[in-house]
């Protein structure tokens, strides 16, 4: 029995490489958005003012990929091994992101003011960040759910979705999944109507909006895979990357929240279907693989620098030329740091943990 489980754990299915590449495009959009939202506090003036919707694309992609990877074998490997797989895949970068956030907070050269927090409170904030326990108690950081590494809010909901997938969703009949997705769409529409946007989930005040965002998009991703809604096309990576970027670059207008809903409810699921069915040219394969590999490290390690950038912007008041240079250079350096993190930390640690895990399963 243990040998069978080990074999199933070791199985890996071929990647949808274009979807991997699009994940990287979305991660890069998030980084640029986080820089630009400091510069333009009015979203209507921000050229990438809808970059935050990349998170909803992540959620939809996650539902599709998890269904693809585990629907056929979660019954064989069991719920516990599924949870171990998700922890090994996701948590090393959660730990690193929290650690970088703490270091950035303590040694921010432009402000930070770590002295306003007692050592005990700062330790508690750090521990909660390490274990993804929501703790929005930092007023100087807009009561982010995870003050030391803001993007962790979406990882919290990814873990919740994984739990529900393992306990309920992987067994849910397709008709029931359709009903769940429609109910989730209704809930998301109510959030958009109430808030006037789909930006919520990242802080204490909008915490439950994050649940509404992942409930729909993750369910939609599952439904796309189980319904085999894969649309054959020749758009390729670059064509689909342009279509994805259009959503992030969409300007704000009076009925902005309706446009955001249409993007999340219809456009992103369509892009996932197209990405899964598109052909990949040999010239773009390496780019897609690289883009997909660094997407998660980039997403989880960039925000410590964003806080420092915000304090630099507030205290130094640089001109537009200097800001342009800083944002471009910062994005390039953060991408390089994400690659180094992947090569030197994430991949080796996950390999070590997986080897330890597989040894424990051997008779």
State which percent range the strand residues make up: under 5%
How much helical structure, as a percent, in the residues? over 70%
Q: Total strand count, please?
A: 0
Distance between the termini: 9 Å
Molecular structure report:
The protein has 363 residues and is mainly α. The longest helix has 42 residues, at 320-361. The protein has helices at 2-10, 17-39, 54-70, 74-106, 119-130, 152-167, 174-195, 207-226, 236-249, 256-277, 282-301, 303-316, 320-361. The protein has one domain (2-354). α2 (17-39) runs parallel beside α9, α8 runs parallel beside α10 and α11 (282-301) packs across α13 (320-361).
Topology overview:
Blueprint lengths: L1 H9 L6 H23 L14 H17 L3 H33 L12 H12 L21 H16 L6 H22 L11 H20 L9 H14 L6 H22 L4 H20 L1 H14 L3 H42 L2
Helix pairs in contact: 1-4, 2-3, 2-9, 2-11, 2-12, 3-8, 3-10, 4-6, 4-11, 4-12, 4-13, 6-8, 7-8, 7-10, 8-10, 9-10, 11-13
Main attributes?
0% strand, 363 residues, 13 helices, mainly alpha, globular
The gist of it:
The protein is mainly α. Helix content is 73%, strand content 0%.
